[in-house]
Amino acid sequence: QTIKQSNDPNQTQQSSQYKYRSKSTFYFIINYLFQSKFNLILIDSHVLRHLFIHQLSFDQLEKQLITFAIHDESVERLIESLQDVKFSIKISTDHIFIEYENKTVHLAILHKYNSYYLIHKNTLLLSNDIHLSYGDKVRAVEHMESELHEYLFYYPRNVSHFLWLYKTSEFLYCNRELADKMENEFHLRQNITQLQLSITPMKNVAYALDKLEKHYWLAGGALLGWYRHCGLIPFTEDADFGLYAEEYDESIRNYFLGNPVTYLYSALGLVSNLLVLF
């Protein structure tokens, strides 16, 4: 699952014991879905800031639409459950919009892709005043811990970190057509064994920099390999990452010192200039 839900065995029981119930239209839809045993994950960046950063109440929301995520394996059963209700519904393979009394619950469908999930761009026609936080473009969602809110939806346990990841969540596909041409016409094929050996430390670097909230990007030959070969440049064994100098601090060096997966091999140049990791 994308969201690892709380292991508290009393949580589901507690959810039925909340004394306060919102009178909002949003809650009416959310409660129906929860009672139908669908787990909604709040990913709407505006609402997350409203509830957890600014500490405002759910009933103070002045929005026409709220976005939640739902796993793709739940979609078929969800569509069946909505056939006999009085909601207005728009459905595609990637997004579901449930409208009731001029309020809309947007369900962005999570599609498993490698070690994370993708939310695809919305293609359904919406009114011009609706701006989606997910569905505006293809975005990636990583695994995270979650908690159950009193209004019967899940939310990221570390909201501030989730919002930081959102800023860099746009997903870009490599050039598959060009990669096929490199293989078929120029016989530049991926060494799968070497690729797998390189991917593990690269994932560890990306995980560390995300955890430390450092902006980074593929650079040099690694960037060219991603775009032109959908992997690494054949016959190469290294990968380059770029990082803003002003974001560098000792937390990066300390993370990789003695790291069992990707360890700090050497530091070159100026104090904050270049780290070599193995």
Give a quick precis of the structure.
32% of the residues lie in helices and 23% in strands. The protein has 278 residues and is an alpha+beta fold.
Keywords:
278 residues, Beta Polymerase, domain 2, 2 domains, 7-stranded mixed sheet, 3-stranded mixed sheet, 9 helices
Textual characterization of the structure:
This protein is α+β, with helices and mostly antiparallel strands and 278 residues long. The chain has two domains: 3-166, Beta Polymerase, domain 2, CATH 3.30.460; 176-277, no CATH class. 32% of the residues lie in helices and 23% in strands. It is built from nine helices and 14 strands. The protein has helices at residues 11-15, 25-35, 45-53, 75-81, 159-166, 176-186, 192-211, 220-229, 250-256; strands spanning 3-4, 41-42, 65-71, 88-91, 95-100, 103-113, 116-119, 139-141, 144-148, 154-156, 216-219, 240-243, 264-268, 274-277. Strand 6 and strand 7 (116-119) form a beta hairpin. Helix 3 runs antiparallel to helix 5 (159-166). The radius of gyration is 22 Å and the shape is globular. The protein starts with a strand and ends with a strand. Mean pLDDT is 88; it is low at 11-20.
- H-E string: EHHEHEHEEEEEEEHHHEHEHEE
CATH level-two architecture of the largest domain:
2-Layer Sandwich
**Low-pLDDT stretches:** 11-20
Instruction: Outline the biggest β-sheet.
Output: 7 strands, mixed
Oligomerization state: single chain
Structural class: alpha+beta
Shape: globular
Q: How many beta-strand runs?
A: 14
Strand content: 15-25%
Give the N-terminus to C-terminus distance in angstroms: 30 Å
Count of helical segments? 9
Radius of gyration: 22 Å
Number of domains: 2
The CATH top-level class label of the largest domain:
Alpha Beta
Percent range of helical residues? 25-40%
- Reported by name, the CATH topology of the largest domain is Beta Polymerase, domain 2
User: What number is the mean pLDDT?
Assistant: 88
Protein name: LicD/FKTN/FKRP nucleotidyltransferase domain-containing protein
Keywords: Membrane, Transmembrane, Transmembrane helix
Pfam families: LicD (PF04991)
Membrane topology: Single-pass membrane protein
